[in-house]
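Suppose you are handed only two things: the residues of a chain and a line of SMILES describing pyridoxal-5'-phosphate. What would the bound structure be? This form records exactly that question and the answer produced for it, so the two can be stored side by side and reused later without any lookup.

QUESTION INPUTS
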Amino acid sequence: MKRNQKPATKAGFFNKKGKEPDDIINHLFEDSVGYLSGESISPPIFQTSNFGFSSFAEFKKALKNEKKYYLYTRGNNPTVELLRKKLAALEKAEDALVVSSGSAAVALAVLSQVKQGDHIICVEKPYSWTYTLLHNFLRKYGVEVTFVNGTQLKNFEKALRKNTKLVYLETPNSITFELQDLPAIAQWAKHHQLVTICDNSYASPLGQQPIAMGIDIVVHSGTKYINGHSDVVCGVICSSRTIIDKIFRHEMMTLGAIISPLEAWLILRGLRTLPLRMAHSTKTCQEIVSFLEQHPKIEKVIYPFSPSHPQYNLAMKQMKPLGSLFSILLKVHSIKQIERFSNTLSYFKRAVSWGGYESLHFPYAVTINKKEETDKIPWNLVRIYVGLESAKTLLQDLEKGLTAI
Ligand SMILES: *Cc1c(COP(=O)(O)O)cnc(C)c1O
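ANSWER OUTPUT
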């Protein structure tokens, strides 16, 4: 590549808006972006912090538009940029940023939209660090927040104030899996000139595309399905070019929450198998959900794509049935019994997070000392993530755990 030239995009990946999902998935494999005169099948890792210029004039041009040219890797780097373009195409967004964690994506997106004296309406039980950002951190800067049950539009209406600026959504959330009706809320928010942000980590861009339903900004924990290999922490922000340019120039450049070119390359690699991984683990998950729904030791299964979910119809309307994270309520009297269930599992590892190749479980009781301590989340809840192991192995593991109760 000639110094500081934009690479020619032979693959034509960069304008895939409006294409059918299958087209977009096929373009996940178009990595040969013409950085080199030969054909590098896998994209190069531009492991450089800095870029030099052939002339004073070129240097000046790049300094004026750091997002467009390659100047310094805190701003723009070709390997990271390739990933950004792919994620934007998948989300049907004009542009995207990839940042150092899902929490950074949430924080940068929220900070870009509020100032002192503003009010945010957020769904209750969002991701724990999103709650901390909105409830504790932003309060110090004079931003107020109201948490609402997001299953009914009228709850947003009731929380609306003169100074409301932002509506923060997460559908479904990642512990009790309540949904929000995205088109209805987006339309209502537009009517009141509110900006909407949606955390789309559960569904991934393959399962749900909030921007197409009228949402302004989509955020992801790329650590979960998008990277999918439990080896990189990253976050994604997708939106219009105007909003992304603004976040790039202000929040991202000043707070500096970037990923390295090597991490971008790993995520590009993970992304190639996103459709295969999601299809496989969803299929296994559906078998496991059917098994658990019949099991005498289970009080309840909470999975958006089970007809037993109270918002099943909405889930089928606005999402594709993709996802392998769900919760169970165990039929138990004590935390001790949950401990026995947990300690008996061997394939479902005891851990936070999800979206990797390995199955996991998170007994909510690890966060409390007594069962009376919980409020919105039932004490006997265990969150289950189904990875890529065989269905038979996983079913046997659960049966063993349930027997031990
Ligand atoms: C994990 C997670 C986050 C935070 O992402 P990190 O990459 O861990 O910072 C945000 N939202 C949801 C729904 C998550 O599951």
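WHAT STANDS OUT: The two ends are 62 Å apart (CA to CA). Residues 101-103, 127, 170, 174, 199, 201, 221, 223-224, 233, 235 surround pyridoxal-5'-phosphate (CB under 6 Å).
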